[in-house]
Write a structure and sequence with these properties.
Layout (H helix, E strand, L loop, with lengths): L1 H28 L54 E6 L6 H10 L5 E5 L12 H9 L3 E6 L8 H18 L6 E5 L8 H12 L4 E6 L6 H12 L1 H5 L2 E4 L25 E7 L8 E6 L8
Parallel strand pairs: 1-2, 2-3, 3-4, 4-5, 5-6, 6-7
Antiparallel strand pairs: 1-8, 7-8
Length: about 300
Protein backbone atom coordinates (compact mmCIF):
# COMPACT_ATOMS: atom_id res chain seq x y z
CA UNK A 1 0.00 0.00 0.00
CA UNK A 2 2.82 2.31 0.96
CA UNK A 3 4.65 1.31 -2.17
CA UNK A 4 1.74 2.20 -4.40
CA UNK A 5 1.33 5.59 -2.73
CA UNK A 6 4.99 6.37 -3.23
CA UNK A 7 4.76 5.58 -6.91
CA UNK A 8 1.83 7.97 -7.30
CA UNK A 9 3.73 10.73 -5.50
CA UNK A 10 6.72 10.25 -7.83
CA UNK A 11 4.52 10.16 -10.88
CA UNK A 12 2.69 13.35 -9.93
CA UNK A 13 5.97 15.11 -9.20
CA UNK A 14 7.33 14.11 -12.58
CA UNK A 15 4.21 15.39 -14.26
CA UNK A 16 4.53 18.76 -12.48
CA UNK A 17 8.27 19.23 -12.88
CA UNK A 18 8.68 17.96 -16.42
CA UNK A 19 7.10 21.05 -18.19
CA UNK A 20 9.29 23.36 -16.12
CA UNK A 21 12.38 21.47 -17.16
CA UNK A 22 11.34 21.53 -20.81
CA UNK A 23 10.81 25.33 -20.78
CA UNK A 24 14.11 25.94 -19.09
CA UNK A 25 15.90 23.65 -21.53
CA UNK A 26 14.31 25.48 -24.51
CA UNK A 27 15.43 28.93 -23.30
CA UNK A 28 18.96 27.73 -22.79
CA UNK A 29 19.35 26.42 -26.30
CA UNK A 30 17.67 29.42 -28.14
CA UNK A 31 20.15 32.20 -29.23
CA UNK A 32 19.66 35.48 -27.46
CA UNK A 33 19.18 38.44 -29.72
CA UNK A 34 19.28 42.12 -28.93
CA UNK A 35 17.91 44.99 -30.97
CA UNK A 36 20.78 46.71 -32.71
CA UNK A 37 21.39 50.31 -31.84
CA UNK A 38 20.33 52.81 -34.44
CA UNK A 39 23.23 54.78 -35.78
CA UNK A 40 22.64 58.47 -36.35
CA UNK A 41 21.70 59.07 -39.96
CA UNK A 42 22.93 61.79 -42.23
CA UNK A 43 20.94 63.40 -45.03
CA UNK A 44 22.25 62.34 -48.39
CA UNK A 45 20.96 62.97 -51.87
CA UNK A 46 18.86 60.03 -52.93
CA UNK A 47 17.14 58.84 -55.99
CA UNK A 48 13.39 59.38 -56.21
CA UNK A 49 12.87 55.82 -57.32
CA UNK A 50 10.63 53.78 -55.08
CA UNK A 51 9.44 56.76 -53.08
CA UNK A 52 5.80 57.54 -52.67
CA UNK A 53 4.49 60.34 -54.89
CA UNK A 54 3.62 62.58 -51.96
CA UNK A 55 7.04 62.35 -50.39
CA UNK A 56 9.27 65.26 -51.29
CA UNK A 57 12.95 64.57 -51.78
CA UNK A 58 15.32 66.27 -49.42
CA UNK A 59 17.74 68.57 -51.23
CA UNK A 60 20.63 70.62 -50.06
CA UNK A 61 19.82 74.39 -50.01
CA UNK A 62 21.55 76.17 -52.84
CA UNK A 63 24.10 78.73 -51.80
CA UNK A 64 23.12 82.15 -53.14
CA UNK A 65 25.79 83.94 -55.06
CA UNK A 66 26.47 87.46 -53.78
CA UNK A 67 24.84 90.15 -55.89
CA UNK A 68 27.33 92.04 -57.97
CA UNK A 69 28.03 95.54 -56.74
CA UNK A 70 26.49 98.20 -58.98
CA UNK A 71 28.94 99.83 -61.28
CA UNK A 72 29.72 103.40 -60.30
CA UNK A 73 27.82 105.86 -62.46
CA UNK A 74 29.81 108.56 -64.16
CA UNK A 75 29.38 112.00 -62.67
CA UNK A 76 27.10 114.27 -64.68
CA UNK A 77 28.99 116.69 -66.87
CA UNK A 78 29.41 120.13 -65.35
CA UNK A 79 26.67 122.51 -66.36
CA UNK A 80 27.86 124.73 -69.13
CA UNK A 81 27.94 128.35 -68.12
CA UNK A 82 26.18 130.73 -70.51
CA UNK A 83 28.28 133.03 -72.63
CA UNK A 84 28.07 136.70 -71.68
CA UNK A 85 27.19 139.00 -74.58
CA UNK A 86 27.36 142.78 -74.79
CA UNK A 87 24.47 144.97 -75.86
CA UNK A 88 22.78 148.34 -75.56
CA UNK A 89 19.32 149.88 -75.28
CA UNK A 90 17.94 153.30 -76.20
CA UNK A 91 14.80 155.40 -76.04
CA UNK A 92 15.82 157.22 -79.24
CA UNK A 93 14.86 156.44 -82.79
CA UNK A 94 17.37 154.17 -84.47
CA UNK A 95 18.79 154.61 -87.95
CA UNK A 96 22.01 153.71 -89.76
CA UNK A 97 23.85 156.79 -88.45
CA UNK A 98 22.84 156.05 -84.86
CA UNK A 99 23.91 152.42 -85.14
CA UNK A 100 27.24 153.49 -86.66
CA UNK A 101 27.78 155.86 -83.73
CA UNK A 102 27.35 152.97 -81.33
CA UNK A 103 29.68 150.68 -83.28
CA UNK A 104 32.41 153.34 -83.65
CA UNK A 105 32.42 154.47 -80.03
CA UNK A 106 31.45 151.39 -78.03
CA UNK A 107 31.46 148.29 -80.21
CA UNK A 108 28.95 146.24 -82.16
CA UNK A 109 26.11 145.09 -79.88
CA UNK A 110 24.75 141.55 -80.01
CA UNK A 111 21.48 142.80 -78.53
CA UNK A 112 19.60 146.11 -78.81
CA UNK A 113 16.77 147.09 -76.45
CA UNK A 114 13.91 149.16 -77.96
CA UNK A 115 10.50 150.34 -76.78
CA UNK A 116 7.17 149.22 -78.21
CA UNK A 117 5.30 152.30 -79.55
CA UNK A 118 5.95 155.91 -78.59
CA UNK A 119 5.50 157.31 -75.08
CA UNK A 120 5.35 161.09 -75.36
CA UNK A 121 8.38 162.80 -73.88
CA UNK A 122 9.96 159.48 -72.85
CA UNK A 123 10.66 157.15 -75.76
CA UNK A 124 10.05 156.66 -79.48
CA UNK A 125 8.47 153.44 -80.63
CA UNK A 126 10.13 150.67 -82.58
CA UNK A 127 9.49 150.80 -86.33
CA UNK A 128 9.64 148.10 -89.02
CA UNK A 129 12.63 149.92 -90.54
CA UNK A 130 14.56 149.64 -87.29
CA UNK A 131 13.70 145.95 -87.05
CA UNK A 132 15.02 145.37 -90.58
CA UNK A 133 18.21 147.36 -89.89
CA UNK A 134 19.03 145.45 -86.72
CA UNK A 135 18.18 142.02 -88.08
CA UNK A 136 20.34 142.59 -91.16
CA UNK A 137 23.25 143.14 -88.79
CA UNK A 138 22.42 139.98 -86.87
CA UNK A 139 21.42 141.98 -83.78
CA UNK A 140 18.68 140.67 -81.48
CA UNK A 141 15.97 143.03 -80.16
CA UNK A 142 14.72 143.30 -76.57
CA UNK A 143 11.06 144.47 -76.75
CA UNK A 144 10.30 146.90 -73.88
CA UNK A 145 6.82 147.98 -72.77
CA UNK A 146 6.58 151.23 -70.75
CA UNK A 147 3.04 152.60 -71.24
CA UNK A 148 2.21 152.82 -67.52
CA UNK A 149 3.37 154.62 -64.39
CA UNK A 150 1.50 152.63 -61.74
CA UNK A 151 2.52 149.00 -61.19
CA UNK A 152 -0.10 148.04 -58.62
CA UNK A 153 -3.17 145.71 -58.60
CA UNK A 154 -3.75 142.52 -60.54
CA UNK A 155 -6.18 144.25 -62.92
CA UNK A 156 -3.55 146.82 -63.95
CA UNK A 157 -0.95 144.11 -64.50
CA UNK A 158 -3.35 142.11 -66.67
CA UNK A 159 -4.49 145.16 -68.68
CA UNK A 160 -0.95 146.38 -69.34
CA UNK A 161 0.04 142.88 -70.45
CA UNK A 162 -2.86 142.79 -72.91
CA UNK A 163 -1.84 146.18 -74.32
CA UNK A 164 1.77 145.01 -74.69
CA UNK A 165 0.61 141.88 -76.53
CA UNK A 166 -1.39 144.02 -78.95
CA UNK A 167 1.67 146.17 -79.74
CA UNK A 168 3.81 143.07 -80.23
CA UNK A 169 1.33 141.49 -82.63
CA UNK A 170 1.00 144.75 -84.57
CA UNK A 171 4.73 145.02 -85.24
CA UNK A 172 5.06 141.31 -85.99
CA UNK A 173 6.99 139.92 -83.04
CA UNK A 174 6.88 136.12 -83.41
CA UNK A 175 5.60 133.85 -80.67
CA UNK A 176 7.93 132.65 -77.96
CA UNK A 177 9.64 136.04 -77.54
CA UNK A 178 9.69 137.93 -74.24
CA UNK A 179 8.18 141.35 -73.57
CA UNK A 180 9.70 143.32 -70.69
CA UNK A 181 7.56 145.50 -68.41
CA UNK A 182 9.59 148.62 -67.54
CA UNK A 183 8.95 149.23 -63.82
CA UNK A 184 10.89 152.38 -62.95
CA UNK A 185 12.07 153.06 -59.37
CA UNK A 186 9.57 155.92 -58.97
CA UNK A 187 6.55 153.70 -59.79
CA UNK A 188 4.42 152.24 -56.99
CA UNK A 189 4.55 148.45 -57.33
CA UNK A 190 3.02 145.44 -55.64
CA UNK A 191 2.89 141.65 -55.89
CA UNK A 192 -0.54 141.66 -57.59
CA UNK A 193 0.65 143.69 -60.59
CA UNK A 194 3.50 141.25 -61.20
CA UNK A 195 1.09 138.31 -60.93
CA UNK A 196 -1.30 139.87 -63.45
CA UNK A 197 1.51 140.67 -65.89
CA UNK A 198 2.97 137.17 -65.70
CA UNK A 199 -0.35 135.32 -65.88
CA UNK A 200 -1.54 137.10 -69.02
CA UNK A 201 1.81 136.83 -70.83
CA UNK A 202 2.06 133.11 -70.04
CA UNK A 203 -1.38 132.60 -71.56
CA UNK A 204 -0.35 134.45 -74.73
CA UNK A 205 2.07 133.72 -77.59
CA UNK A 206 4.76 135.60 -75.61
CA UNK A 207 6.85 135.22 -72.48
CA UNK A 208 6.97 137.57 -69.47
CA UNK A 209 9.96 139.75 -68.68
CA UNK A 210 10.46 142.46 -66.07
CA UNK A 211 12.95 145.35 -66.08
CA UNK A 212 13.73 147.31 -62.93
CA UNK A 213 16.18 148.11 -60.16
CA UNK A 214 16.39 144.93 -58.08
CA UNK A 215 18.28 145.99 -54.97
CA UNK A 216 18.01 144.25 -51.60
CA UNK A 217 15.70 146.94 -50.20
CA UNK A 218 13.74 148.13 -53.26
CA UNK A 219 9.94 147.99 -53.42
CA UNK A 220 10.22 146.08 -56.69
CA UNK A 221 12.35 143.39 -55.02
CA UNK A 222 9.85 143.03 -52.15
CA UNK A 223 6.92 142.77 -54.58
CA UNK A 224 8.74 140.21 -56.75
CA UNK A 225 9.71 138.04 -53.78
CA UNK A 226 6.13 138.08 -52.52
CA UNK A 227 4.95 137.06 -56.00
CA UNK A 228 7.33 134.11 -56.28
CA UNK A 229 6.33 132.93 -52.81
CA UNK A 230 2.74 132.48 -54.01
CA UNK A 231 3.39 131.53 -57.64
CA UNK A 232 6.51 129.62 -58.68
CA UNK A 233 5.93 130.53 -62.34
CA UNK A 234 6.96 134.08 -61.56
CA UNK A 235 10.46 132.88 -60.73
CA UNK A 236 10.86 130.02 -63.20
CA UNK A 237 9.24 131.55 -66.29
CA UNK A 238 9.95 135.28 -66.02
CA UNK A 239 13.14 136.79 -67.45
CA UNK A 240 14.64 139.45 -65.17
CA UNK A 241 16.52 142.51 -66.42
CA UNK A 242 18.09 144.48 -63.57
CA UNK A 243 19.82 147.86 -63.41
CA UNK A 244 21.87 147.25 -60.28
CA UNK A 245 24.63 148.10 -59.60
CA UNK A 246 25.61 150.90 -62.01
CA UNK A 247 29.39 151.12 -62.46
CA UNK A 248 28.84 153.26 -65.57
CA UNK A 249 28.75 153.05 -69.36
CA UNK A 250 31.79 151.46 -71.01
CA UNK A 251 32.83 150.28 -74.46
CA UNK A 252 32.38 146.57 -75.04
CA UNK A 253 36.10 145.92 -74.50
CA UNK A 254 35.97 147.43 -71.00
CA UNK A 255 32.73 145.85 -69.80
CA UNK A 256 32.80 144.51 -66.21
CA UNK A 257 32.35 140.89 -65.16
CA UNK A 258 28.72 139.73 -65.07
CA UNK A 259 27.86 140.39 -61.41
CA UNK A 260 24.39 141.93 -61.02
CA UNK A 261 23.55 142.89 -57.46
CA UNK A 262 20.09 141.35 -57.03
CA UNK A 263 19.32 138.96 -54.14
CA UNK A 264 20.18 135.29 -54.80
CA UNK A 265 16.59 134.18 -55.39
CA UNK A 266 16.16 136.70 -58.21
CA UNK A 267 17.75 135.14 -61.33
CA UNK A 268 19.01 138.09 -63.36
CA UNK A 269 19.61 137.31 -67.05
CA UNK A 270 20.28 140.85 -68.33
CA UNK A 271 22.32 143.39 -66.38
CA UNK A 272 22.11 147.04 -67.35
CA UNK A 273 25.40 148.14 -65.86
CA UNK A 274 25.58 151.66 -67.31
CA UNK A 275 23.02 154.34 -68.23
CA UNK A 276 23.06 157.57 -70.28
CA UNK A 277 26.14 157.27 -72.41
CA UNK A 278 27.68 160.64 -73.28
CA UNK A 279 28.38 159.67 -76.87
CA UNK A 280 25.18 158.29 -78.42
CA UNK A 281 22.07 158.08 -76.23
CA UNK A 282 22.48 154.52 -75.00
CA UNK A 283 22.64 152.35 -71.90
CA UNK A 284 25.02 149.39 -71.83
CA UNK A 285 24.09 145.81 -70.90
CA UNK A 286 25.48 142.33 -70.38
CA UNK A 287 23.24 139.45 -71.50
CA UNK A 288 23.41 135.74 -70.76
CA UNK A 289 23.39 133.74 -73.99
CA UNK A 290 20.88 131.17 -72.69
CA UNK A 291 18.00 133.66 -73.14
CA UNK A 292 18.80 134.61 -76.74
CA UNK A 293 15.96 132.44 -78.05
CA UNK A 294 13.52 134.64 -76.11
CA UNK A 295 14.81 137.81 -77.75
CA UNK A 296 13.68 138.98 -81.16
Amino acid sequence: MKTAKLIWVILISVILVLPILLVSFHQNIMPTTTEPKKEPQTVTERSNEGESPDKQPQTQPQQQEPEPEPEPQPAPPPQKQPQILWGVDTASKLDQAFLQCVVDNYGKPAVFGRYLETKEGVSTGLTPEEVELLHKQGIKIIPIYNHFTNATTYENGAQEAQAAIAYALQIGIPEGKAIFADIEPTYPVDEAFIQGWVDILLGSPYEPGIYGVFTNDSELTAAYQAAIASNQNVQTQTIIWSSNPDPGVTPQANAPEFHPGAPENIPVSIWQYGIDGETCNIDTNLIQSNILDFLW
